[in-house]
Design brief:
79 residues; membrane; transmembrane helix; transmembrane; mainly alpha
Length: 79
Amino acid sequence: MSLYSNEYLDNQIEKESKYLWSAESIFLVIVLVACLIREELTFTFVLLLVAFNFLHRRLAMCNRRLELLEERLAQAQSN
């Protein structure tokens, strides 16, 4: 098996981040709609949800990139 190129890693991360963005966006919309229906939504709560969504997505992307780089390093060391 050949080493992953940087372009391959970037493409994988881009693909996975699109799926992650979609899943978290759907979750955020469901939570917001549920809160609106119950009329218990505050501006602060919305800001916290958006901030959590953004930070969680960035952390997941960084973790995935780290996993791919660790796989690449392991392959390089085994060759």
